[in-house]
Amino acid sequence: MSISKDDFVSGFVPGHNHGSVDYTSISHGHIHQCLDITSPPIMTPDGGHIHYTEGYVMFEDGHHHHYKAYSSPAIPVGNGMHVHYYDFETTTDAGHSHHVKGVDMPAPGTK
After folding, report:
1. Can you give the residue ranges of every domain in the chain?
2. Most buried residue, 2, 16, 54, 82, by CB count within 10 Å?
3. pLDDT tens column, 47-72
4. Closest CA to 104 of 59, 58, 50
5. CA distance 16 to 18
6. What is any Pfam family matched here (predicted)?
């Protein structure tokens, strides 16, 4: 069975990931763009899943920041799709850090 990004699926879809495009909080008078792709799902003891991500925010104001974070459990959004919430702090570089929070792009599956 082949599943595409536009297919609506009830249940869990193994091997999927999520992308996101967001901006950091303002710190020291600037922001960074954060482009991200998560790991494949990590199963949780309750039968749900989360995702891990790490990377760098876009270079801005002469520097960048690194981050490592885990998502929330899956949040069903209807039509057989789900998202994850994220909320993390970047590393401290150039004397400051940034906060990043938001929701990633929907992926097939309700769990």
Report:
1. 19-108
2. 82
3. 999 999 999 998 888 999 999 999 99
4. 50
5. 7
6. YmaF
